[in-house]
Amino acid sequence: MIMTIKSKKTEERQKQLSVQEAFNLWDLLKAKYDALEQLGVYQQFAHDLDLQVILGRLIKTIDKNKEILESLMKQFAVRGPDQYRFPVDWAGNPEALRDEYMAINVLTQLQSRILTMLRAIRTSLVNEQIRGTILRMVKTEFELVETMIDYVKLKGWVATPPLYPSSPSHLKEIIDVSGVGHLWDHLTFRYDNIWQTKAFRELVHDGDFRILLERGLATLAKQVEVLETECKKFGITLPTRPSEVLSTPVSAEIVDDDKIYRNILAGLQGAMIMHAEAATHSLVNDRIRHLFQDLLLEELDMFDNFVKYGKVKSWLHPVPSYRAE
Length: 325
What we know:
Layout: H1 2-14, H2 19-45, H3 49-75, H4 99-123, H5 128-154, H6 177-201, H7 207-233, H8 257-281, H9 286-313
Helix pairs in contact: 2-3, 2-4, 3-5, 4-5, 4-8, 5-9, 6-7, 6-8, 8-9
């Protein structure tokens, strides 16, 4: 009887998350296990004292996030992956791994795991606790990325891509071609977002939804101003701005509010990856990289609130639950 009651409680918990969220928990925990094993090995090989300290800090933070994920998997009764192996004392050649190789590799892996966590956020639409937990983890692990970037730049281990040759001659601040491309791409993306959002505003029926779109337009306008300023500063040719005049649709019945909502949601999901890639590639100019990071964190908060709003309106497609009825 006791086992039956326990089994029913387990099934009820499992119904509170989707199949995607069950995989996200498993995948993120496996990534943490892999990271801890790698960092443990590197910590034994590291020669530079600063690198040893940084690796220890990374291990501490990732281990804390690992414990959070393990707790969530126990709470929702999701089977976890095998744990990582503890590194053993190495009696071989201490020069087998160079500090430069290890530091660059750790940075690359940290950046890759940020993208994995963003995919998990993008697909965690059912369980608020899980999505909120991963959101907080992204913010803490971005701090680890910044720590590693500061370290490898201090050591002179960052490969520098071609610098943008068309910046004004009086400008002392430098930017590489990747940063220029991402600034232009972000600005173009926002121009299109503004035009599309204005068009959707004319079509929606729900008053609350229209107010939400107005707020989104205000945020986009502020971001456009920032991006235009940066493009002008570095002498980057600006893309064509969208028209301020939109023709009034003949009928607002051509599309439903829920379809408009899901279209915007997909745009927010795509913007996450766009911001993350820009932050990953922009290593030369710290200020521009921080700009892309700020845009990403703002996008994540907007996405989180937008998902909650869609759930209130019942506009999200039902996702298969981990434990079906």
